[in-house]
Amino acid sequence: MARGELTDQKWVIIGPFLPPERGRWDRPAKDNRRFLNGILHVLRAGCPWRDMHERSGKWNFVYVRFRRWAEQGVWDALLQTLGDLTLTDDWQHMVDVT
Description:
Layout: H1 8-14, H2 32-45, H3 59-72, H4 74-84
C-alpha cells in the first residue's frame, strides 16, 4: 500500500457504498478501491486528472467513474453516513474547484 492510499480498515467501511461496475463486452470492471485511491489522490493533491498516478488506472476511466458516482449521489450518501457514524472531522465538507 502506497502512502495516502486507503487502509483495509477504511476500505471495509467505504467499500460497500461504491456501486459495482460492469465492464464492457462481459469483461469485469477494474477494482473500485484502486479507482477510489486515484480519485482521492487527485482531490488531495489538487493535480489535474491527467497527472494522476498510473497505478490507479487510466485517468479518463477514473474521472468517468468519479463523475458517474457524483451523478448517482454516491458521494452524498457516503459523506452522510460517515457523518452519522462520527467518522469525519467536521459536519461540513467543501471542495474548491477553482
